[in-house]
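Running this now, will post back.
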Amino acid sequence: MQDRDSPVDTINGFVEVYLDARGIKGAWEALVFYVNREKTEGIRRLAREAQWFEDHMPWDPRYRKTGVHGITANAD
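Update: finished.
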């Protein structure tokens, strides 16, 4: 939970099964994610320009937000 900089993340474990009327079935998932550095940089570049996009929206300026910040994300 502390490591937010690792380029690899995993999900390993049981998942909920909602369609089992008796409640005895189980489902398992195991996924590995890795950070695609090129795509991540593209997302971060867009996020840095979030205010520019808000300032150039096609609606009345009184409805535009100020102090817009982009998202924090990694691309797989």
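The CA atoms of residues 6 and 35 lie 8 Å apart. More later if anyone needs it.
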